[in-house]
Amino acid sequence: MRRYVIAGNWKMNFTPSEATAFINEIKPLVEGKNNCDIIFCAPFVTIGAAMEAAKGSNIKIGAQNVHFEEKGAFTGEISAKMLKEIGVEYVIIGHSERRQYFGETDYTVNLRTKAALAAGLKVLLCLGEVKEERLAGITNEVVGMQTKLDLAGISAEELKNIIIAYEPVWAIGTGLTATPEQADETCGVIRDVVADLYGREVAEELIIQYGGSMNDKNAAELLSKTNVDGGLIGGASLVAEKFNAIVDAAQ
Predict the structure, then answer these.
(1) What is the DSSP letter of 171?
(2) What is the architecture, at CATH level 2, of domain 4-250?
């Protein structure tokens, strides 16, 4: 059985003090709910405060990005080694906003993924199609190619430390959500591509999240689908009651 993973992506929200207050609010709500992994990915300056507040709880703290070089003249960037040393366990790589606004490509996503894995981090690897690609009927081809490029040169053993988050770009921050059937179908396509690359047994162990506007209202139906193993949550991860409702759906 694959384990549910419910991860919140705070994006550019929460100062350190705000994160502390939020973690202290949600800790008692999710206490003892151990049928899924609970992660919040915080802005770099907020990670330390979030980790301190989460100590002793079932909440894990991750980062939202990482550079592919260990060190060097990359002003404003953070290396995997830096994240690892402060106790970060998870990092989001390839989020659609990074691709859209900051020039991320499948090539750099692959490099960042390899760097994170080499440092001992676990990766939430994001991929998904834009609206025009969905309307053109090429979703399967797009996510299949992304999967192959993003995982290029990564071994089956390393894949154990990767969670793929399928996030249709047209459903992020728009209020739109893929239907449960669409989410299940496309997550299944990703799983089939992974099976072609690594074998069916490896593919069946891979955790694939849905990351397109999952919230407290639609989580239960989305999570009921065979190929949906959790969620990468945006807006709903900023409200304790809403995020807790998603965790409850995963129980």
Answers:
(1) G
(2) Alpha-Beta Barrel (3.20)
